[in-house]
Amino acid sequence: MLNVTKIEKSAQINRGELFRFGTGLLFIVGIMLFTIVRTDGGTHGVLLVVAAMIGGYMAMNIGANDVANNVGPAVGSHAITLAGAIAIAVLFEAGGALIAGGDVVGTIKNGIIDPALIANSDTFIWLMIAALLAAALWLNAATALGAPVSTTHSIVGGVLGAGVGAGGWAIADWGQVAQIAASWVISPVLGGVIAAVFLYLIKRTVTYQDDVMASAKRVVPLLVAIMAWAFGTYLMLKGVKQIWKVSFGFAAMVGFGFASAVYLLVRPQVVKMAGQLANNKQSVNELFTIPLIAAAALLSFAHGANDVANAVGPLAGINEAIVGGSVSAKAAIPVWVLLVGAIGIALGLALYGPKLIRTVGSEITELDRIRAFCIAMAAAITVIIASQFGLPVSSTHIAVGGVFGVGFLREYLKVNYARMVQEIRLHHSTDDPHAVDAFLARFEAANVAVKGEMLRELKSRTANGLLNKGERKGLGRIHRLELVKRSLLLLIAAAWLVTVPVAGILGAMFFFMIRGIMLP
Q1: Do the domain assignments include residue 47?
Q2: Structural domains of the chain, count
Q3: In which region does residue 328 sit, left (phi positive, over 0), alpha (psi from -120 to 50) or beta (all else)?
Q4: Which of 101, 131, 281, 331 is most solvent-facing, going by the fewest CB within 10 Å?
């Protein structure tokens, strides 16, 4: 009886995990049964069934890992609940995949290997299965570790490793691989810098002003309009590119029209809402709630339109090779393949996404709605800039870089302010403590311009502003605030660095294993 009780308690503790695993397993089994019905049997039929199951597994891992970057900041800033974020992301990810996922995808991701050097269609099928399985397993491991990684880089690594196994080192375009490696630095740095710039802009123009709400009435509608332009342009360039090719100029014009309409619509609403809020920094956050939710939805739509190819591109290529009997760098996506990707991404997000959503939204650094808004802006603008310069960037790296960017800016500003306060105390070291406290109270209440003037005046009055050697050392020993979790920074950076190599090694291993099984 005691053993039965222990088993029941263990089952209750792990009930959630068992439910997630069981639901995911049912999805994979459903794909297997559906694909079996569609095939005519034989070796190729079995391979298509296996590839479809792995494609579904890959799609679930994309949902569990990559989608967190789109909705994590909104959840971390408490603009929306976790359940609400998952519902929005599921709807818009699936909508983006089905509406704008495209009819054709590149099966050889980013042209990193030459399909002409692949011996035959059987070798190509084994290569794609190995690449899919390698990328999916690495994404699963990264999710378990709590590290948001690039699914694009995962599938690139899988294709590269399996391709080298199939055709030797010469099959790879190492120049393209080098560009992808460069994006490990380009993506997070661009995202972090742009997010930090927007945050500093908001601080200087709104939260550091004497009349916060009066400034917010002027600035917030402009910021929302800029966001509308960025997302309008972003969606034209990335979200609908599969069904309608547009130039950057045309996309920017459409974005400007959208931004103008949004500005005219939003400005009176912001003015009305601001008039009902207290005149302080905390109230400004309320003005960014709806724009932030809209940003999460639009990012999810564009992500679904683009990254569904990471899950179903190789599967579409396998289907093409089996049906057409030839190797192709491009392949049409059957509706059933697109559905596998869309449903898998949505299911993976709902079942396993909360862990990474919490990591991105609250564990790296504390986010409020202003900071989360800046991260969303950075994600859209960075992709636009990178696409025009032909830079290979990762949306995952951009978003996470944006989180780190706002966190490190906050650290810098806090430390800088602590140094100013300490300098004031050192300059007032011989004064009455009450006078020092009164000066600090006036200093804290002042805006940025007045703070600077108070410091300059203080220095000019105090022995030409010079501090002795010991006092300067005291300033250097100001406690360094850590508003960004360093352990997560190291973990994520390490995961980014090893994504392509690890996926590549796994891809090569799986290719040789599959070839060994399939060869007579």
Answers
A1: yes
A2: 1
A3: beta
A4: 281
